[in-house]
Automatic annotation (TrEMBL):
<dbReference type="InterPro" id="IPR017932">
    <property type="entry name" value="GATase_2_dom"/>
</dbReference>
<dbReference type="InterPro" id="IPR006426">
    <property type="entry name" value="Asn_synth_AEB"/>
</dbReference>
<keyword id="KW-0436">Ligase</keyword>
<dbReference type="Pfam" id="PF00733">
    <property type="entry name" value="Asn_synthase"/>
</dbReference>
<dbReference type="Pfam" id="PF13537">
    <property type="entry name" value="GATase_7"/>
</dbReference>
<comment type="pathway">
    <text>Amino-acid biosynthesis; L-asparagine biosynthesis; L-asparagine from L-aspartate (L-Gln route): step 1/1.</text>
</comment>
<keyword id="KW-0067">ATP-binding</keyword>
<dbReference type="InterPro" id="IPR014729">
    <property type="entry name" value="Rossmann-like_a/b/a_fold"/>
</dbReference>
<dbReference type="InterPro" id="IPR033738">
    <property type="entry name" value="AsnB_N"/>
</dbReference>
<protein>
    <recommendedName>
        <fullName>asparagine synthase (glutamine-hydrolyzing)</fullName>
        <ecNumber>6.3.5.4</ecNumber>
    </recommendedName>
</protein>
<feature type="domain" description="Glutamine amidotransferase type-2">
    <location>
        <begin position="2"/>
        <end position="222"/>
    </location>
</feature>
<keyword id="KW-0315">Glutamine amidotransferase</keyword>
<dbReference type="InterPro" id="IPR029055">
    <property type="entry name" value="Ntn_hydrolases_N"/>
</dbReference>
<keyword id="KW-0547">Nucleotide-binding</keyword>
<dbReference type="GO" id="GO:0004066">
    <property type="term" value="F:asparagine synthase (glutamine-hydrolyzing) activity"/>
</dbReference>
<comment type="similarity">
    <text>Belongs to the asparagine synthetase family.</text>
</comment>
<dbReference type="InterPro" id="IPR001962">
    <property type="entry name" value="Asn_synthase"/>
</dbReference>
Length: 660
């Protein structure tokens, strides 16, 4: 895993600040992504420079050093990621080269570079299976190509800054561009307040963008000089791939044994590394299955890691240890205290670059930091929920919508009012009493918060709006904005039409396209790269994706449970009793922390002076919500965390704020 950066002058003149000097600084600002070495290359004729920070994983010798120049001298490549089928890709190159190919080493970077030279860019991207963000300079055509992997596992930002072009793995690197003054893009704030992340193609700054997953951007020297801004084109469509493989009546379905072979192949490909390798293990379905398939392919014990917390409500370490013991892994429980998590909070704006408010970022940062003391690469279960129906909304969402949509709007309004008539803390108290006799699968943490969210759902007028509210951290982000700053991002129209998918399948697809890309993968990438740890996700292998979408819905969501086929596979390796329990998630006691150890930090950020730094915010509404939270009246911790992370980010980076 590595970091990339680059700078391209629109009108390069001799005597200007060296492009390589700029890129050296850009690269150093993302040093944690690649602490093993730094490389910078410049094409002096046109004022372009490429930079790279290396975390050595495959071929740790100098033969894998970047930027890498093709033997013919035409191409220069910087690459961040891993290509898991690079051996097969090498065979393709050798078969089509028309002459013997002389390899300098066995890195996947060299494989990609020669494939680009022999097969072309799009053909190589289609053939490559992996996670990546890369930049390829064609000296002959004087053209720069940026590309990103299918699911957006690896980040890539780019923008036209002061008339020149820059790109990097992280936003902070762009701050090294001479004369650039970052300006807050106010149009993304409402969407951020709703979902807790800056989603889609836009970044938090004006004129700076994320290259979308599965996309390719090509910029020629002449286009840059003329001020032309080309738009990315898709070389892979997640939606089209899902639709093309969607299981239809009459089509032969994969058995659970077939699915196991597909997953085992993906796991095996991702276990290749020239450095120590292990796996995250929470004891849940996804991570337990990945570890089971790892252990089935090697004779030595796989190294597994989990983080245990001092608060038993959020501690899954005993479950993980039991799974590890059954599978025979070399297991390490990393003991973490609440104070360790709290100590990370001030560093979050610097670590994430953009406002980011998924509070599971805290335990993710902890487990990554502690795991890096033992290994350099880990496999994870990320993507399992999105592909196989692992979220509650996939299971009960369609049933709830079917009932709500039949009710007249006046009846819905009455039911919503009745639900809100009881304080959310009262519902929590009831759940605490009945949980002593309820089976564990029916016990619900933050029961009151979920019922209040149900009350919000009664107001939805379409399946798209229903999904938007289900997937929101804050269903009413406009409450935290002044009246002139709301309504810029309609909640429902952010999602495409269903077009042949069932509602549950459509929600899984939307989660893959939005929540997974904008939240889950961002969280894991930044948390792991801060500790120079590479995380690989076998569920995001394209062969696994196609296989998952060829399954009928009943093999994913069935009888009130998600991930039906994954459970069937896992129970061949691990006893059912070790797995079947309520889904806990990677959570922290945010509500308690904000009233306790984080209160002074929050009070400072919510002061009038701090709130006035972002004039689009409704300071009065935010302060009222904070006072209600301090009194224990309702569940506002998550909504407040979203605002607090925005304010903390603003205080740290101090962007210019201009009215639109």
């Amino acid at each position: 895993m590595c970091g990339v950066a680059g700078y391209f002058y629109s009108d390069y003149q001799s005597g200007q600040k060296s492009v390589s000097e700029i890129v050296h600084v850009m690269s150093d600002m993302i040093a944690s992504r690649g602490p093993d070495s730094r490389g910078v290359w410049q094409d002096c004729r046109v004022g372009l420079s490429l930079g790279h920070r290396r975390l050595s994983i495959l071929d740790i010798s100098e033969a894998g050093h970047q930027p890498m120049i093709s033997p013919c001298g035409r191409y220069a490549l910087v690459f961040n990621g891993e290509i898991y089928n690079h051996r097969q890709l090498r065979a393709q190159v050798e078969g089509r080269a028309g002459a013997p190919v002389y390899w300098r080493g066995h890195s996947d970077t060299e494989t990609l570079l020669l494939s680009f030279a022999v097969q072309g860019i799009e053909a190589t991207l289609q053939a490559a299976s992996g996670m990546f963000a890369l930049a390829l300079w064609d000296r002959q055509q004087q053209s720069l190509a940026l590309a990103r992997d299918r699911f957006g596992e690896k980040p890539l930002y780019y923008g036209w800054l002061n008339g020149n072009f820059a790109f990097a793995s992280e936003l902070k690197a762009l701050r090294a561009v001479p004369g650039w003054e970052p300006v807050l893009d106010e149009s993304v704030v409402e969407r951020y307040l709703r979902y807790g992340c800056v989603g889609g193609r836009n970044s938090i700054y004006r004129d700076v963008f994320k290259l979308p997953p599965g996309s390719l951007l090509t910029l020629s020297r002449s286009q840059l000089a003329s001020g032309i801004r080309p738009f990315p084109v898709q070389w892979w469509s997640t939606k089209k791939e899902a639709a093309d493989n969607l299981s239809h009546e009459g089509r032969r379905s994969l058995s659970s044994h077939d699915m196991e072979m597909v997953l085992q192949g993906a796991v095996g490909r991702m276990m290749e590394a020239d450095v120590p390798l292990g796996a995250f293990l929470s004891g849940g379905i996804d991570s337990s299955l990945i570890v089971a398939l790892m252990q089935a392919q090697v004779s030595r014990p796989v190294r597994t890691f989990t983080v245990g917390f001092d608060d038993p409500r959020y501690d899954e370490s005993e479950h993980a240890a039991a799974v590890a013991a059954h599978l025979g892994t070399e297991h390490t429980t990393l003991r973490a205290t609440a104070q360790m998590a709290l100590d990370i909070v001030p560093s979050l704006p610097q670590l994430y670059d953009e406002p980011f408010a998924d509070s599971s970022q805290l335990p993710t940062c902890l487990v990554a930091s502690l795991t890096r003391e033992y290994v350099t690469v880990v496999l994870s279960g990320d993507g399992g929920d999105e592909l196989f129906g692992g979220y509650n909304r996939h299971v009960w969402g369609p049933r709830v919508w079917a009932r709500i949509s039949r009710l007249p709007h006046p009846v819905r309004a009455v039911l919503a009012a009745l639900l809100r008539a009881v304080p959310s803390a009262g519902y929590d108290g009831v759940m605490g009493l009945v949980s002593q006799v309820l089976p564990s699968r029916f016990q619900v943490r933050t029961f009151g918060e979920k019922l209040y969210k149900l009350a919000e759902l009664f107001g939805c007028d379409s399946p798209e709006a229903f999904y938007a509210d289900l997937s929101s951290m804050n269903c009413n982000p406009g409450l935290f904005l002044d009246k002139d700053s709301t309504g810029k991002v309609p909640s429902a129209t952010a999602f495409s039409a269903m077009e042949g998918f069932s509602q549950a399948e459509w929600m899984m697809l939307m989660d893959t396209l939005t929540y997974m890309v904008d939240d889950v993968l961002v969280k894991v990438d930044r948390a792991s790269m801060a500790s120079s740890l590479e995380v690989r996700a076998p569920f995001l292998d394209p062969i696994v994706f196609r296989a998952a979408w060829s399954l009928p819905l009943s093999q994913r969501v069935d009888q009130g449970q998600g991930k039906r086929v994954l459970r069937d596979i896992l129970y061949r390796h691990v006893p059912r009793g070790l797995i079947e329990r309520p889904k806990m998630g990677f959570a922290v006691p945010l509500d308690v922390w904000l009233r306790g150890p984080l209160r002074d930090w929050a009070e400072s950020l919510l002061s009038p002076a701090s709130l006035s730094s972002l004039p689009m915010l409704n300071a009065r509404a935010i302060r009222h919500c904070w006072q209600q939270h301090l009194k224990g009246k309702g569940h506002y911790a998550q909504q407040l965390w979203v605002v607090l992370q925005l304010l903390a980010w603003q205080q740290y980076w101090k962007p210019e704020v201009r009215s639109c």
